[in-house]
Amino acid sequence: MKLFYRKHYRIIKPAATGVLSLILVGLILLSPEFQRLFAKTADAAQTEETVAQTSSEASAGGVSDADQTADSAEDAASGDSGTAGSETETVQQDNAQMLAGEDSWMLALINRDHPLDASYTPASLTQIDDSHSVDSRIADALLKMLNDASAQGLDMYVISGYRSYDYQTQLFNDGVSQRMGQGLTEAEAYSETARNVAVPGTSEHASGLAVDIVSAGYTQLDEGQARTAEQQWLMEHCWEYGFILRYPEGTEEITGIVYEPWHYRYVGAETAKEITEQNVTLEEYLGQNRS
Ligand SMILES: [Zn+2]
User: Fold this and answer.
1) Whether residue 98 is found in the same domain as residue 50
2) What is the pTM of this model?
């Protein structure tokens, strides 16, 4: 045996080492400790993927769209898709923090480049009529504006105030479905809807600081609204109450939203006066042009 061993030493030793290694690896793989660790890693990977998928679906309003693809391509081209993601996250937190704060809450900028965290809800909402509410901090100013208008013999009402993220998502998806029903492709329907309905996460209505007001005699949300006596009065006087017409005519390139002669945003009396005097959009006022 000894002789045999010595004779075949060079073959037996590596073979034995190999077998031993295999047994060792087998034991490690079978050990509960390792299996637990492995299971944890697999879990984490899946969760991250699910989160990523959910958030990209959420920002797209549940539809796949040309814009998102374009964004990703841009990110890939500039090689910083990671940074882009975390920047958006920071902006979202900043917006929510700003709105929840005490000082400059009324100056929060919410648009496609500055989305608002989906989880944000105003700390306090005030019901201004049977079916609409706004952030309590703007309720007095809004009601005073509506009452003063009414005292002038004007007849108007709020058709949209605070909107939850979920409701905005529903509105957006309805818009896409409707346009696809009219024969547009999904990508076309998405970008056409995005011109008219804020992409979920980018609507000022989620902040509770914006309202849509229409003339009782003309309730269409189109440019005809601008010709009503009610809108003419609002456009002239809203700044006195701390409001601005948020998406004025000819500013789509800057705001990303078409002319909306019914959407008013509270920014506070001082800022509303300055914005009106300077005849600029909120983006320009804050030095945050989209382009
Ligand atoms: Zn609106």
Assistant:
1) no
2) 0.68
